[in-house]
């Protein structure tokens, strides 16, 4: 299909080389550049400009080896193509010799041994770059390329060449990383004028801390920023810098990411700067509660900066550390681990926790244990019963952050430079938004199946999102295990577990529910309503006993309702608009790529078709290139009118 002929013209030398190299692949030999001639302009506006006027492309076996016992396969082959420059700076074939004096490569494996066929074209390079950016291992990349080219045997380069390309790509990505990162933020801000970022640089221009917040996160924080978690365990970027995530939970009980932060050191000063900057970027509104891992520097920083915020440790780190520090106890006593976890997860009141802890230490003779003693002394920071009255949106551990960190590992390749890290983080955010949209759709469409049919559940279905209705229905279902005893009519009731004998010895089986404000407020000893913002099963059981068919308004927390995000400030309204027209660049690229492959398949069938397709593509490139320039100019004008103080990424 690609047989060179005298008179065949090309727009550039690179195009001529590519064409002849395709021919050499089909026949079974390699090529390389050889002789050339140049011309230097002696006058005129292009004086002293040097042009190549002649170029030879020869067979890889042209000439002879300079040394004996060499691995070179040169044997004096005379096959060659002579190219001359045209007046319009194109190239054409002047002379063509296609006969060879040696055997030709028979299969793809042999053909790939020629240096000219180890070259990876720019389209394949870009595909490899995109795959590696999305954290695909080398073996999977090679497998995908096999599908791309038809089979792994048809890939026009070997795995070693792919490894070298990946190393080269990683090196290119790491070059000038800070500038690329700042350019990326400029582009992000052009797409979302509400995005804000702060970079703290040292005297050498290196980033000490980098924190950013987009418009969607600001909107979410206004509605769901009452309880957040913060975690800095992710450290797999190029510089080993800790990466922190501020995470909350929305009205669908999904994790939502408020902000990402890269920091060089985990010191008190660094954390102070981060918490201060985060609060500032979020409009100066501090969270009600913040949950973190056990870190003294973080604790001091929160005390200094977030003075009115309740700080607690995550519960998650206790069983994790217990597994590391109590290994011998776990081995010696098979029942210790499940009993320990039951104590941590199911004790509700302080009395339950204290009784269960004392009983566990006595049973296994662990009174002065080197791990359990200090953990117990710090129980006010992590044990759930000591969270009574503290709103946490049912987030009693930083597993929300841990989960987000785990998801991020699926997007960011190990050793990623900073700009790629930010780019992939944005993909994670986009993924979370898609999941949120799915839940919004499910809630709007309705059609939920009620578990019990009680009128109060029907009312909950009109108020709560589908996910929160599920939780409320579970509370109604759980209330069936309680019996109600009237202590003071319409003021105080006692709920008793119907199967108290089967409960743990330390478990509390009766809870007092107090009614106030003329039946509008229910307060239970368990404290779940204050901790989560939703009625507990004990209060619901009393309501059912009284025939209450609607949730009192004082117990409907807006952050859990369908209308949690119904009121937005003017500068954030655009974030709720349909995002269908703003498809990602990768989506557009993939769609265009498929269409281009269809054209390429047509061009492959016939030489005449090939030339027509190439001409069609070149004409299209000129036409749509001009269109793009005009559209970018119009966007710059609109951007300047709407956001005169925000620079455009095209300027």
UniProtKB/TrEMBL annotation:
Residue span(s) of domain SWIM-type: 511-547
PROSITE patterns assigned to the protein according to its UniProt record, in alphabetical order: ZF_SWIM (PS50966)
Recorded superkingdom: Eukaryota
This protein's UniProt keywords: Metal-binding, Zinc, Zinc-finger
Signal sequence, renumbered to the chain: none
MF GO annotations: zinc ion binding
InterPro entries with a match to the protein in the record: FAR1_DNA_bnd_dom, MULE_transposase_dom, Znf_SWIM
Keyword flag Metal-binding: yes
Protein name, entry field: SWIM-type domain-containing protein
